[in-house]
Amino acid sequence: MLKNKKSRKKIPVSAPDIGPLEKKYVAEVMNSGWVSSVGPKVKEFEQLFSKFVETKYAIAVSNGTVALDLALEALGIGEGDEVVVPTLTFAATVNSVIHRGAKPIFVDSSLYDWDMDPQKLESVISKKTKAIIVVHLYGIPAQMVKIMEIAKRHKLFIIEDAAEAHGALYGKKMVGSIGNIGCFSFFANKVITTGEGGMCVTNSKRLYEKMKLIYSHGAKPNKSIYYFHPVIGHNFRMTSIQAALGIAQLKRIKQFLKTREIHENLYRRFLKNIPGIKFSPRPSGVKPIYWMHSILLDGASVDRKKLIMALKKQGIETRQFLYPIHKMPYCLKYAQGLFPVSEYLSKTGINLPSGVSLREKEIIYITDVIKKFVKKAI
Ligand SMILES: *Cc1c(COP(=O)(O)O)cnc(C)c1O
């Protein structure tokens, strides 16, 4: 298939794996007639997911962004409050804070794990600070012990944005289960997908009940009275069709994660000792998952834009790293200080094709194109 240019199929940067099990479960739910959030499927997905991440409670929501909105609202974050966030993250992490009327306070990343640097965290905490959103970027768990210790000392809540890290371990704990509330995304490019979808997990009964109240029109979940709303709420619910898809994906997640790890190791093997190419850190005491296969172009001789173009020409889709969010026009007013590590990662990083359907042959092909390009550049 990869022999000549014309018949070569394009390699996407990420593709979901939707198989017979997903189709079967979705068809079953369609046939049952329970297509909204009402019915048994959403509950079943929540129970399976809370078992997977080892938390007492889980609430399925319509996407990962509203999972963050729901978490912040349940923690009572609002106007006048400050929430500490990493600047190197997906925009939704930060936007959820701004939508609450609160102020995002940016922290630089660490080279140790590409996540929020605990050493740069304490100096940005003020009297107004109420919470920290920790992001386990690209599947690498953040330094939770250090961050939790600081949070405890200043009495701050912790939300874990685990949208890119389903199944990653910090010590023996699943990420998302460590802070007050963990948020996940099931967008099509995430480790498991429901098309669009998300989940909030917690071990706190109080926070669970609060989220449960807010996420469905502010109505009491056990409906003794209809159309009475003690508080103002939203509709953040997930449908049963999404939940059915999610149940099938969750049943396959262990294999997904294993396959992704194999792919990462193949990339590392084929690009070993190539000057100027660095892989993601593997800090001790944690087990990252490989949502993306990331490399940094650390050598001055390799031009990232040109490499991305060269790969594109060969039918290989990639992504440059995220932009630091303090650089977004609407965040300039919040940004204080310098973020050299985030800027370095943002400028040098490339995400290579990932996903369960990727083949070893394709990884050989991709890494050959990279090797040839680097050789020419030197
Ligand atoms: C994907 C993602 C989100 C948002 O999830 P959606 O389901 O797309 O709304 C939030 N935070 C991070 C870090 C993400 O990668």
Give an overview in words.
With 378 residues, the chain is an alpha/beta fold. The protein folds into two domains: 20-251, 3-Layer(aba) Sandwich (Aspartate Aminotransferase, domain 2), CATH 3.40.640.10; 253-377, Alpha-Beta Complex (Aspartate Aminotransferase, domain 1), CATH 3.90.1150. 35% of the residues lie in helices and 15% in strands. The strands form three sheets. A seven-stranded mixed sheet has the order 1-9-8-5-4-2-3, with helices on both faces. Strand 2, helix 4 and strand 3 (103-107) form a beta-alpha-beta unit. The structure holds pyridoxal-5'-phosphate.
For this entry, give a set of tags.
378 residues; alpha/beta; Aspartate Aminotransferase, domain 2; Aspartate Aminotransferase, domain 1; four-stranded antiparallel beta sheet; 11 helices; 14 strands; 35% helix; binds pyridoxal-5'-phosphate
**Largest beta sheet: what is the strand line-up?**
1-9-8-5-4-2-3
CATH homology superfamily name of the largest domain: Type I PLP-dependent aspartate aminotransferase-like (Major domain)
- The H/E string reads HHEHEHEEHEEEEEHHHEEEHEHEH
Q: Report how far apart the termini are.
A: 31 Å
User: Low-confidence spans: pLDDT under 50, at least 5 residues?
Assistant: none
CATH architecture of the largest domain: 3-Layer(aba) Sandwich
Number of strands: 14
- Alpha carbon gyration radius: 21 Å
Write down the overall geometry: globular
Residues in β-strands, percent = 15-25%
Identify the CATH class of the largest domain: Alpha Beta
CATH topology assignment of the largest domain: Aspartate Aminotransferase, domain 2
- In this structure, how is the largest beta sheet organized? 7 strands, mixed
- Report mean pLDDT, rounded to a whole number: 95
Small-molecule components bound = pyridoxal-5'-phosphate
Tally of structural domains: 2
Tally of separate helices: 11
